[in-house]
Amino acid sequence: MTNRLDNIKAVLLDADDTLWENNMFFLQCIEWLCKTGRGMGFCDKAVLTILDSWEKHHIRLMGYGYGSFEQSLLATVKQLVMTGRYYSPGHAGLRKRALKWTAFLRTHPIIFMLGVEETLPHIASHYQTIVVTKGNHDDQMSKVQRSGLLPILDGVEVVHRKNVGDYISVLKKYNLKPEETVMIGNSPASDVNAPKRAGIRTVFVPHSKTWHFEVEPIQPGGPETIHVPHFAALRDVLKLPM
Q: What's the predicted TM-score (pTM) here?
């Protein structure tokens, strides 16, 4: 397998945890939730199991996004209060604190991943460059706008699930050929396996805090997948001038 890509005309880019930090802020919120659960007699595993169950439920109903997570967080807090072994007057304010967490998640600072600020402008100057992200349109566009990257991008597509159909729709909208397109991201499920099934080559940029719902084995075969240690390594993969 080569470590460099040939015949590429368009670059699709994931946003969260590829261009900037995202899941680390959710993990901070979840640590607060686990600490709250410990005070009620729950182990961390039990708290996470409850949260995961509610997340799966609300994702089915609402799709991905901060609104879905907010409902899952509130439902988990309520379940902990109702079924926990201990109660204190402080528990009356948990809903308010949970809502403060989700407000923070919607406005968290943009912390770019290693090499993004230096490398992305070079990518955008040589290739048609489109961000493909999933979730609530307004929430995702808010992050793109706050990042200051919007002027150098050729497009931003906020899709529902990042499945094969979503990628095919992006290709059709921008009149792209799958064999001349590469998708770059940190999620094995959404940024590698799904576009591979749409005939798109991929670059996997791992992140130590990738959301566990997105972690799965990368499919063998099909269009090639190149692994790089960080975003700056894309300069070599995409044959950008130094």
A: 0.93
User: How many folded domains does the chain comprise?
Assistant: 2
Q: For the chain, state the CA radius of gyration.
A: 20
Domain range enclosing 149:
10-21+111-237
- Measured CA to CA, the distance from residue 166 to residue 134 in angstroms comes to 10
Contacts of 116 (CB under 8 A, 6+ apart): 19, 20, 231
Residue 43 lies in a domain: yes
Q: Which of 94, 62, 103 is nearest to 75 (CA)?
A: 94
At 73-126, the pLDDT tens digits run 999 999 999 887 766 655 668 999 999 999 999 999 999 999 999 999 999 999
The sign of the torsion formed by the CA atoms of 42, 43, 48, 49 equals negative
Q: Are 181 and 238 in contact (CB under 8 A)?
A: no
H-helix segments, the chain: 23-38, 44-62, 66-83, 94-106, 116-126, 137-147, 164-173, 194-197, 234-237
